[in-house]
Specification:
Elements: E1 2-8, E2 14-20, E3 31-34, H1 39-47, E4 53-58, E5 62-68, E6 77-84, H2 97-110, E7 118-126, E8 129-138, E9 144-145, H3 161-179, E10 182-183, E11 192-195, E12 202-205, E13 212-213, H4 217-235, H5 239-252, H6 259-262
Antiparallel strand pairs: 1-2, 3-7, 4-5, 5-6, 6-8, 7-8, 9-11, 10-13, 11-12
Length: 266
């Protein structure tokens, strides 16, 4: 049994939540996984399609909203990400982006890297064909994303001491990911939330659909360098600052050290 809700937030924007008695991820039928302790809230969303929400991101095939939860059911807000108008052949017998992102969260969490908390996710399929998928995570209150420190986005935090704190802390986490055989695939600073200042700064990873392992060492090395380039480019560090960040990375992941590695970024 499966039923879906296309939740209209205004005349032009909508997001999809699918409910199903099937809870195990599968490429053969619809399914929904909901974390214990969030089931009543999830049911509330299904029963109240007019819930209040703030649009965070919207494209042709994806929408991201921040939604307020009833205080008597859940403390805090959530982020609802919906994928729709999927390309049938691309996801035929393959997991959706929402499913891959949830798996990415689990992979990164196992390495001790903080991420947003996954509360629910699922897919709607008709005879194996994917029509929509969704992912619900806990909203990280009081946080900003890393574009706050980016020169290309005129970030107000660019050039401040906390910019280097952010870069050094994040590069240690990225080195941990690489050291364990995974690459991120989407290391733009907007995909990392932060709060606090100085040594008390905390960084939370989000948008992890592209986390992947690469058994071929040559391919892995190429993807690892791409991760670092994608992070360095929008931040706009000076040569001296890049060297400091690279040295920190090398200390955490000695397998990627040396002049050839360094020359990729300077």
């Amino acid at each position: 049994m499966v039923w879906g809700r296309r939740i209209f937030l205004d005349s032009r924007q909508s997001c999809y939540i699918t409910a199903s008695v099937n809870s195990e991820p599968s490429c053969f039928h619809s399914w929904t996984w909901v974390r214990d302790g969030f089931r009543k809230v999830f049911q509330w969303f299904l029963e109240h399609p007019d819930f209040e929400a703030l649009k965070l991101w919207k494209t042709r095939n994806k929408s991201v909203y921040k939604a307020e939860c009833p205080r008597e059911l859940y403390s805090g807000s959530v982020v609802i990400k919906s994928y729709y108008e999927q390309r049938f052949l691309r996801y035929f017998l393959r997991p959706s982006l929402a499913c891959r992102e949830a798996e990415g969260y689990l992979t990164v969490q196992k390495l001790g890297i903080p991420t947003a908390e996954v509360l629910a996710y699922g897919e709607r399929r008709t005879v194996w064909w994917l029509s929509s998928s969704f992912l619900i995570t806990r909203f990280v209150d009081g946080s900003r994303n890393g574009t706050y420190f980016c020169t290309v986005d005129d970030g107000p935090g660019y050039g401040t001491p906390d910019m280097m704190v952010f870069c050094l802390k994040l590069i240690e986490m990225l080195a941990t990911l690489h050291r364990n055989g995974y690459c991120h695939g989407g290391t733009h600073p907007r995909n990392f939330l932060w709060f606090g200042a100085g040594e008390d700064m905390k960084i939370i990873w989000i948008d992890l659909a592209t986390v992947k392992s690469y058994p071929d060492p040559a391919v892995f090395a190429e993807k690892a360098v791409a991760d670092l380039k994608a992070f360095f480019q929008p931040v706009g560090l000076s040569t001296e600052q890049k060297l400091e960040v690279i040295r920190r990375y090398e200390a955490c992941n000695p397998a990627y050290s040396g002049a050839s590695f360094e020359n990729s970024f300077l």
